[in-house]
Amino acid sequence: MRKDYPMHTIYLGSRDGLHFLQADYCKIKDIILHEFSRFTMFEADGFFAGKDVKTMVIKIASDDVDKVRRVVTKLGRGMGQKGVGLEVGGQYRSVMTIPPSHTVAI
Q1: What is the pLDDT of residues 61-94, one digit of tens each?
Q2: What pLDDT band is residue 57 in, cutting at 50, 70 and 90?
């Protein structure tokens, strides 16, 4: 019998608002692959504070919420973001991954 899993959507904005570099794409993929063997990711046009920001959208079907949250934190830290968007069941929240004083300035 098949099992239904909740869908988690992660929104990771690029640091400079531009397209993700191949190295960034590989780093994001490697961080996720460490925890999950099945997921979907694609670059999209997002907007933050009224500005166009290239955003990596990552979809993970899993009932392990703690594991998804670990990935969100690892992505934020690995990409120098103080916050990463997480949507579960239609509810969105910004997950603080590192203190603002430790973010990477680009």
Answers
A1: 999 999 999 999 999 999 988 889 999 988 999 8
A2: very high
**DSSP letters of 57-80?**
EEEEE-S-HHHHHHHHHHHHHHTT
CB 97 within 8 A of CB 77: yes
Residue 63 CA, chain-centre distance (Å), reads 17
The three-state secondary structure class of 97 is coil
CA 22, 71, 87, 38 dihedral sign is positive
- Domains of the chain as residue ranges with CATH: 7-102 (3.30.70)
Q: State how far the Cα of 55 lies from the Cα of 65, in Å rounded to an integer.
A: 22
Which secondary-structure segment (H or E) carries 24?
helix 22-33
For residues 76 and 74, give the distance between their C-alpha atoms in angstroms, rounded to a whole number. 5
Other C-beta atoms closer than 10 Å to the C-beta of 2 total: 4
30, two tokens = 């490697």
